[in-house]
Amino acid sequence: MLTLKNISAGYGGAPVIRNINLKIENNVSIVGPNGCGKTTLLKVMANILPSKGEIALNEKPFAKLKRKEISAQIALLSQQPMIYFSYSVFDTVMLGRYIHIKDSFFGAPTNKDKEIVLKSLEAVELLPEKDKSITELSGGQLQRVFLARVLAQEPRIILLDEPTNHLDLRCQVDIINHLKKWAKEGGRYIVGVLHDINLAMELSDQLIVMKNGELQANDSASKILSSGLLNETYDMNVAEYMRKTLKRWENGSWK
To answer: What is the domain count for the chain?
Structure first.
């Protein structure tokens, strides 16, 4: 369980998010317009951005936990990062084991580490590509490599920051399905920032809605959709837009 109490954070002394209070213990999607503080909130949850207030993991405040204790439980999967080295797929995923390897006696991957890497690659259907250079992969394959790296870390919580951005529709759905399958295994869960509201609801039945750095709602998708809150949040009729799009598909009319 991840608990946030009166969290405020920002950059250069300017607040981006203010007075956020949340208790997260299931899959949840965070939605809201650009610049509302979604990514900033994820960075606070990942312990990579200082904040005011208190954040706790399983009722233990971050302030009383070592950084590696937090990293062992929480992993961040962001938009596709830059590639600086032409590592193999296998070696790239092995980087997810770093926190475990550095504490081992010899400081080298064990057979268990290698097995976990292979299992993670199998989970995202990339085992046949394990010896390829990551520079040879498509964008969708590369993002699945980074997902496998996160899985190899063996966290309890995965934070997603637009992980499907720039991916085609099939890759987007595949990434979400891989993550949902992972979360079903043994008390794991996902906190996802997704611009696509349909994908957000595919990931989770619970939505956190943000606007102007503040929490607008934290409730089931059905309640939020029926309340009209998204219309206020995005300054447009979201439901009408969705219905219009669906009608086009049903009627085969694209005007």
So the answer is: 1
> Which residues touch 189 (CB under 8 Å, ≥6 apart)?
24, 25, 26, 27, 28, 156, 157, 158, 183
Length of the chain counted residue by residue: 255
Q: Is 255 part of any domain?
A: no
Q: Which two tokens stand for residue 56?
A: 């706790």
Give me 223's structure tokens.
Answer: 């309640």
Residue 20, C-beta contacts closer than 8 angstroms, at least 6 positions apart:
4, 6, 7, 8, 41, 53, 214, 215
From the number of C-beta atoms within 10 Å of its C-beta (0-12, 13-18, 19+), residue 215 rates as buried
**What are the residues whose beta carbons fall under 8 Å from the beta carbon of 204, sequence distance 6 or more?**
26, 27, 28, 29, 190, 192, 221
CB-based burial label for 31 (10 Å; 0-12, 13-18, 19+): buried
Q: pTM of the prediction?
A: 0.87
Place of tokens 């960075």: 43
Please indicate, yes or no, if residue 106 is contained in any of the structural domains: yes
Could you tell me the maximum CA-CA distance found in the chain, to the nearest angstrom? Answer: 65
In a structure prediction context, what are the per-residue pLDDT tens digits for the chain, which is 255 residues long?
899 999 999 998 889 999 999 999 899 999 999 999 999 999 999 999 999 999 999 999 999 998 888 988 999 988 766 666 788 999 999 998 887 776 555 668 889 999 999 999 998 889 999 999 999 998 888 888 998 999 999 999 999 998 877 778 888 888 888 888 888 887 799 999 988 888 899 999 899 999 999 999 999 988 998 888 999 999 999 888 888 888 888 877 666
Range of the domain at 150: 74-154
Q: Running DSSP on this structure, what letter comes out for residue 36?
A: S
